[in-house]
Acetate--CoA ligase (Methanospirillum hungatei JF-1), 629 residues
Amino acid sequence: MSEDFEVILHTKSYLPDPEYKAQSHLGDYHNAYQEFLKNPEGFWDRMAREIEWMKPWDKVLEWDYPYARWFSGGTLNITTSCLDRHIKAGRRNKLALIWRGEDGEERVYTYRQLHRDVMRFANALKRLGVKKGDRICFYMPLVPEHIIALLACARIGAVHSIVYAGFGAEALHARIRDAEAKVVITADVGKRRGKVISLRSIVDDAIRNTPSVEKVIVLCREKCSVELYSEMEEDFYSLLDGVETDCPPEEMDAEDPLFILYTSGTTGMPKGIVHTCGGYATGVHYTARYIFDLKENDVLWCTADTGWITGHSYIVYGPLSAGATVVITETTPDWPDPGIWWSIIEELGVTIFYTAPTAIRMFMRVGEEWPNKYNLDSLRIIGSVGEPLNPEAFEWYYRVIGKNRIPVLDTWWQTETGMHMITTPLGEPMKPGFAGLPVPGIEVDVVDKDGNSMPPGQGGLLVIKKPWPSMMRTVYRNDERYRKYWNQIRNYYTAGDLAVKDNDGYIMILGRSDDIIIVAGHNLGTAEVESALVEHEAVAEAAVIGVPDEIKGQAVKAFVILVKGYEPSQKLVSELTYHVRMSIGPIAMPASIEFVDSLPRTRSGKIMRRILKAKEMNMDLGDTSTLEE
Ligand code: WT7
């Protein structure tokens, strides 16, 4: 298969100003990495001491393959690291959050205000009967109340499960059911490109036949009367009437769950990735401070949504733990025009900007005159995440936004890893096309399917060789799926990506090795899209593949066999596209649908998407010995 191939490596590299390294928290990367290797547990012990604990741990790591317990015996509440300690440390009047709406509306929260509002909402949740361990599902736009309610869950030990508010009712339903959420928190509407999108009606659809749900909390942004719908609903702000302001943090065991986050799997049902309190808090604080190098005056803008792990780790928990100022916004990159994001950077003085290759490629296409209209001098680090940052996009980002002097941090990681795993640490040479080197604390390699290390230039599978604190602990209610991550290649964690190293150990990510399609940085399982298609009465069978897309990286292409009696038509194409949009969401919409009479299969009946893909792209079909016909 594709594990064994040669890759021609670019050799270009850019050297950042030595001041970056000299001033950084990490210092010299190679020294830091050697320190870690000498004493891995000592390294993580030091990092864990940088957050707040109620009771110290007895042991840094207990590794009972494939189960890890980090900082066992220790207790903490992540919100004290994100809020309380900054109040004590003189940051009480520092801005924690700056929110910018589409129409230019702005709201700001100091650390003191955020702390107070989190505690009040935490008390409101308690009054509703929410207890430690209960699952709370979020389906919210990116507004301050979302962050407040999220931290309030963490404050009382409730487990949050955020569902991206661009997902459709069916996707939301499946996630509510799997997590057995007791409460759903939503808003009446989200705002996007000048349009008002009803979220509450989607929630309404999604909570049919979800017996676990007792309450739906609705944040009313427009004029809405919550009672109109049902007795289950509560108004976000009315819940705060008469609650106390003080809410002591729940004492959590280091290994208690902090949240569940669903990510697409290669089978139909998305996987509920479970992260725990102590290790996750340590990992995101460590990377916020030592990889993003967050300092007292930094203003961080991570353009992700909270519905993805990027938002959890680098909008909420990491930067707040490091005491930075965080920018959040509901804006899209090209509305009302493609200058909007650059104008926000100029106006708010953003110092660290973190976005996705798909956005960078969109900006490339519309032209550099847009960013050039604005003064971007406040920037000191620009980052990328979600899919490979191709060399052309790197060059553009570095030249146009980075002015040939600001380090580009391409960061490779996953929902499952919780924190940055591979990047080009500040001060190290940057190589276009390469994510970079493992962060100190992490041992990665590129191997063949037996786990043997591949020589430089030879492609292989990306693995992580040892446990790390912010690793996922299980897949919610599917521990077998969790074990699969660790039992495919020796005792290593298999990431599911193809990669290649160069002579300096730099890692280039080549894409997924499994049936995951990454559209504009969003993970989609082929099975998920296929089952949505098959739900339609006209569809007998469907297979989907990812095809290259200039802006989105990949786009969905669907092959469909129709039920007898249905004829291919443009109308049916639109209908099927709409159907996928409504059940999973706009990101899953096929860019093209082809009607076929049969699909390539193995003798055991499995659809061979690899063959469809090779045909589509006019490539060699590869090994077809298992093909049926
Ligand atoms: C998959 C994980 C981590 C937050 C966003 C995605 C791909 C992620 C990079 C990168 C190349 C990347 C991988 C990975 N990916 N970052 N810098 N270069 N590929 O989280 O939804 O869990 O997806 O995204 O294929 O396995 P996720």
